[in-house]
Amino acid sequence: MILIPLDKNSSIPLFQQIIDQLILMIEKGNLREGDKLPSTRAFSEKLGVNRTTICRAYDELWALGYTESKQGGYSTIRKRDRKVVVTPKLNADLFDWNSHVSAGYLQLENRMNQLKMNENLNSIDFRRLAPDKDCMPVELFRKCANQIMLDQGSTVFQYGDPAGYLPLRDSIAKQMQFHSVSVQTEEVLLTNGAQNALDLVFRMFLNPKDKIAIGMPGYAALIPLLKLYQADIIPITIKEDGLDLEELEKAMISENLKAVYTMPNFQNPTGISTSQTHREKLLHLCERHSVPLLEDGFEEEMKYFGKNILPIKSMDSKGIVIYIGTFSKILFPGLRVGWIAAEKKVIEKLTRIKKAGELSGDQLNQAILNLFYEKGYFDQHVKKMHRLYRKRMQITYKALSRFIPAYVKYTKPQGGYTIWFEVPAEGKSEEDFMELLANKGVLVSPGSHFFTKASESVNFRISISCVNEEEIWTGIERIGLILKNE
């Protein structure tokens, strides 16, 4: 009979003590392959414990692969495969994974390494581009979540339509009609945010070496995604009024572009919004040269100065525009719900791709969000965000005019969160400038993140999304001191 000392006063459960000691006996060779363990009844009597404790220990030993058991028979020690022991020193060299990844992944990895951010909790951080967590309507969303769980709990946990929760698609179609975009429910596909939407579109039509035109400086997270697909990025200069259309047309003629990507509202990183005339000319160019236009409306709702300008999609009579929207920049970045609005045939293709890769969308969050819409909470929240960020941007403008020297160029957005700075280089390096700012307790996004090639000036972006009015004033004052002392 096996003897095992048990400590009934220990915080370790009795069944776990039995498991640990039997494993130790097996590993030491005291119990060998084929040896029988005592019956659960006999062992429980010998150790003075409940029989269910022994049963639980035996079940766990079987699950761990230490024993074999047959119905009505004894548990016996089984032969186990060689135990793998991993040491930190050997772990990195166990397998050469670099030789098994795609060329596109290696390009992505190089780019992502360039975008790493250093954390400094004591600094004023102008890098974040997401709604302030203190402004998120968590309680209202929780109420909607509770109601959905009560009313639809058995439904929303099932696999759903790959195109997304139908009532939310309908709500988005109606919302887009407020922006004069004529889109039907079947022309809307729900995605896991705007980045997932871009990924789906690129999966649909990008082959290695295909050329896609994007503005420079441009959306930093777009560049590694395009590198993953091994696409050739054709940079188009961003001017004060948006994409340089003359430069773009030359590229259309010479480069055989697969698509053009644009952010007409509050372009990231510059914050520039394009005029109605510019949008019309851009659409006309794409139509004339038969080049699809990807319109990223990531902050469509965040205009709080001046008159609203309609999305390019609102003028799309030939179905050449694929519109991408998201709730991440105005509601919850962690919610991961976005959408694509495009011609029905495009949506059908994208839905097949989504089904192949994801099977179904997140029905639960999509249903909660739809109820949030239906109750009027979304419109209520947008108005609150406009009041809050209009005030923050006004404070920003005052601080910029007071502290930033005249030789520095910066944008003055009509909405959104970001402002772009251009500083004449004059021998300064971006890295040195970032270090000077960090030493003053200010973190900004380096301009190099938004280019594929080095710029002739020192550039950086600030975002006011997650900083309060006092931090904005103090942070810009510190930036101004660095610029004046350079």
TrEMBL record:
Sorted UniProt keywords: DNA-binding, Pyridoxal phosphate, Transcription, Transcription regulation
Sequence ranges assigned to domain HTH gntR-type in this UniProt record: 12-80
Protein family (similarity comment): In the C-terminal section; belongs to the class-I pyridoxal-phosphate-dependent aminotransferase family.
Domain of life: Bacteria
GO molecular function per UniProt: DNA binding; DNA-binding transcription factor activity; pyridoxal phosphate binding
Entries under InterPro entries matching the protein: Aminotransferase_I/II_large, HTH_trans_reg/aminotransferase, PyrdxlP-dep_Trfase, PyrdxlP-dep_Trfase_major, PyrdxlP-dep_Trfase_small, Tscrpt_reg_HTH_GntR, WH-like_DNA-bd_sf, WH_DNA-bd_sf
SUPFAM superfamilies, per the entry: PLP-dependent transferases, Winged helix' DNA-binding domain
The UniProt record lists the keyword DNA-binding: yes
Protein name: HTH gntR-type domain-containing protein
Gene3D superfamilies on file: Aspartate Aminotransferase, domain 1 (3.90.1150.10), Type I PLP-dependent aspartate aminotransferase-like (Major domain) (3.40.640.10), Winged helix-like DNA-binding domain superfamily/Winged helix DNA-binding domain (1.10.10.10)
